[in-house]
Write a structure and sequence with these properties.
This protein is of the alpha+beta class and 88 residues long. The chain has one domain. The chain is built from three helices and three strands; from the N terminus they run H-E-E-E-H-H. A three-stranded antiparallel beta sheet has the order 1-2-3. A hairpin with a 7-residue loop joins strand 1 and strand 2. The mean pLDDT is 92.
C-alpha cells in the first residue's frame, strides 16, 4: 500500500489494529486536519490516545509506525491485543 490514505481508510485500519478494543477518532476542532485518536476498553474507559496530523495518517508507512507505537504502549500497560499487520 503506497498510495496516500484517505481519512476513512486510515480510520478503518486503526479500528482493526486495536481489537479487541475499540478505536474512536474525531477531527481536532482547530481545523488543521489533525485527528484525535482514542482506544477504548469494554467499560468505555480510554486506555490510550494520540493526536495525529494528516501528514502521518495519510502516509501508510508512517501510519503503520504510529499504530505499532500505540500498540506497544498498550502492551506495556498490560493490555492484550489481537495480532495485527498493516494491510497491503
Amino acid at each position: 500500500m503506497n498510495a496516500p490514505l484517505r481519512v476513512n481508510e486510515a480510520l478503518l485500519i486503526a479500528d482493526h489494529a486495536f481489537e479487541p478494543f475499540q478505536c474512536v477518532a474525531w477531527d481536532a476542532p482547530n481545523g488543521t486536519g489533525e485527528l484525535s485518536l482514542a482506544v477504548i476498553d469494554r467499560t468505555s474507559t480510554r486506555i490510550g490516545s494520540k493526536q495525529v496530523s494528516s501528514r502521518i495518517y495519510s502516509d501508510p508507512a508512517q501510519w503503520a509506525c504510529l499504530i505499532e507505537e500505540v500498540r506497544a504502549e498498550l502492551s506495556q500497560k498490560g493490555y492484550d491485543l489481537q495480532p495485527w499487520s498493516m494491510p497491503k
